[in-house]
UniProtKB/TrEMBL annotation, chains A, B:
InterPro entries tied to this protein: ATPase_NBD (IPR043129), ROK (IPR000600), WH-like_DNA-bd_sf (IPR036388), WH_DNA-bd_sf (IPR036390)
The family this protein is said to belong to: Belongs to the ROK (NagC/XylR) family.
Keyword Nucleotide-binding: no
One of the GO BP terms on file: D-xylose metabolic process
Keywords: Carbohydrate metabolism, Xylose metabolism
DNA damage listed as a keyword: no
Main function: Transcriptional repressor of xylose-utilizing enzymes.
Origin superkingdom: Bacteria
Protein name (record): ROK family protein
DNA sequence: TATCTTTGTTAGTAATGTTAACTAACTGTG
DNA sequence: CACAGTTAGTTAACATTACTAACAAAGATA
């Protein structure tokens, strides 16, 4: 029942070998049967047979001849990235941002909608369904080619059980919302919070590419982190890993209430605004608190002091993360992307003074697309190339 | 070359299936061929064939009849834990502590020796070789049945490359010491620092049993942590994960020198001793600083205050670890095992106030045997039951 | 004692990958 | 420009492995 039955005369090996062949193709972009054979230690006849099957299934395609290496020209094979498609959706504030993508993660169509606030959980699902219909029409992808949808949202999610315990922007609470959406759309759905989705996006397409230990640090309304260790997303035993807002940092003030930890209370954007309210009362809609603070710091001594204090405490947080996790790269996101070169340099210097192994410090590079890219890849992660073989 | 060749006509499946059979036997302790067949979805004839081979190889043995369930009595099979043996060694201070164990990790013989100080790297290797000879003789294990040796030591190790960069107790520095020892002993050797070995020990046999996300926090001469996430040891990108002594904690004092971070500087045992030198000058050899401090705190107000400060800052450190990693259990070791029930309760209360998901807080349960047990298991980890099948 | 159950084995079959030998197609050289 | 040498891909015969079906062994139950 549970175990994948090594049916009849062991299709298992065949599947494993097909996976390996597929992996080689994806890895090399274009490759011939003969080269796959060399890479995989599988015999040429075997590779030929497996490749032929996968061409039948639409997973691979022949794309022409390669250059001769002194003999017959090889037939180049390519993964058919259009074989399947994936959808992604992000709820950020009051907007719903959706996209449909091929198996490379390349967007084929995109769609945005403003949602009425406060959100009503049921109409939001209808919005999602309508958006998906439109994306399918626009991209020309047939519905049965869609593998699934990744949904990211601000709030508190339990990815394991597919539930959402707090999310004003969608109005989803409590109930097993993942199953509800799956039933409505007729598709596998993955739900996760927006920081995790952005982390994944930066990991596969942004600043994190090529690294295996990545921490994505987000400062906005709250402070949180996404953690990827040894190439795997780490979520913690109760999906509460990366809740770095609860760190006890710097001289420990009394907390105003029991809601949030010291770090987040004082050094998230609302916390900073609170500290800066003496001179930062005239904030424009949509402008960056950090940018404003940097501007004020050029003339105002009080602002300058606060800015240095903020940087310093952010650096304390980073030092703690680094001490514990020794990541290769720390990706700065949210309002942190507005820190100027000067500020990053300062933080880097402190870290060099405090900890033995300072990682790369880089700003998030995908901007507002990070979450959507991550949402799409969350599905790719659940249906890796190699698992497509199960689809018969 | 690299890939395990699916030689001839795919021995791979056979190996996979053998692994699964072996796993079932280990899991159940005693089990019949028929039950293995039910558990694994493999046919009874297939299981029989695989089991017979493994009996030939000495990995399994028949141990008698089980109870009838209405028909023929089953023949019970057991894993032969004596099929192979493993050695472990720990250098702690000036003593070398060694053991030889069966595949269950059960010690068959143990051996201790005081080493001359300062240690000379070459004679230490000879001590290791002599100790191993003695253990083999004493336990009656033939040398060719020995799978490998795990070596734990105080200091800085690079397990990946098998080198040791700092280790006064062994005198090993720089050179690829792992290969040197392997050549001398004719055995695979695994070298790691003592905290990692103790972490592993507690994980497989001590307080960490049954958990998948474990942080082992050690306070002694230094402060460090061993980290196991999703059942895997996490070492960080440059093997510097768990260097929690570098955390920036509490009100940040100026550091006396560049050698170590704030947390370790003030709240490791030497740091505490420094702070307590007003009233804690008369320490006996071999006594516990924390025990003494607790004793003094009963009468001396200054000691009481320091003790509370120490607990509080340890708790800050734990809060940071918990915020980032959300482990299921935090194992307290080193001098922390001397904290009394009162102290643990206090720390627990603080944590409940500060962070949303407080893990189990437990003292290390294996005492000084933890490191040795871990050393033995580091080899078991590298040669899991299932990988013994490669030994033909 | 006769029948039913459960365990374990034997015999024949199907699936899969391998090697060896072959065809196809191209390069380079005298 | 023909021919040897090389590389790519295919075909055919064979080996390995696990499966199903049938059977033998051994005990329970009535």
């Amino acid at each position: 029942m549970l175990a994948p039955k090594k049916t009849g005369n062991s299709k298992l090996v065949k599947k494993l070998n097909k996976e390996e062949v597929l992996q080689q193709v994806v890895l090399h972009g274009q490759i011939s049967r003969a080269d796959i054979s060399k890479q995989t230690q599988l015999s040429r006849p075997c590779v030929s047979a497996l490749v032929d099957e996968m061409i039948q299934e639409g997973l691979l395609q022949e794309v022409g001849m390669g250059d001769s290496k002194g003999g017959r020209k090889p037939i180049l094979l390519e993964y058919n990235y259009q074989a399947y498609a994936i959808a992604g959706a992000i709820f950020e504030g009051s907007t719903l941002d959706m996209a449909i993508a091929d198996m490379k993660g390349e967007f084929l169509a995109r769609y945005r909608k403003r949602l009425a606030q406060p959100a009503n959980g049921e109409t939001v699902i209808e919005d999602l369904a309508a958006g998906l219909d439109r994306l399918l029409r626009e991209s020309g992808v047939p519905r049965e080619r869609l593998l699934g949808m990744g949904v990211g949202l601000q709030g508190v999610t339990q990815r394991g059980s597919g539930t959402v315990s707090f999310s004003p922007s969608t109005g989803w609470m409590g109930s097993p919302i993942q199953q509800t959406i799956e039933a409505r759309l007729g598709l596998p759905v993955i739900i996760d919070n927006d920081v995790n989705m952005m982390t994944l996006g930066e990991y596969v397409r942004g600043a994190g590419v090529g690294h295996t230990n990545v921490v994505y640090m987000y400062v906005g309304t709250g402070i949180g982190a996404g953690i990827i260790l040894d190439g795997q997303f780490y979520r913690g035993s109760r999906e509460a890993a990366g809740e770095i807002g609860f760190m006890m940092i710097g001289s420990v003030h009394n907390r105003p209430n029991g809601a949030s930890g010291v770090f987040e209370t004082h050094y998230s954007i609302p916390g900073i605004q609170e500290q800066a309210k003496g001179f930062l009362s005239d904030l424009q809609e949509g402008s960056s608190v950090i940018e404003e603070l940097i501007r004020h710091a050029k003339q105002n001594a009080e602002a300058k002091e606060l800015l240095a204090d903020v940087y310093r405490h952010w650096a304390y947080g980073m030092a703690n993360i680094i001490s514990i996790l020794n990541p290769e790269i720390l990706i700065l996101s949210g309002e942190m992307v507005h820190v100027d070169g000067e500020g990053v340099k300062q933080i880097h210097e402190w870290l060099r003074e405090w900890v033995p192994e300072v990682p790369n410090l880089e700003k998030a590079s995908l901007g507002e697309r990070a979450g959507l890219i991550g949402a799409v890849h969350s599905v790719l992660e659940a249906f890796p190339f190699t698992r497509l073989l199960d689809k018969e």
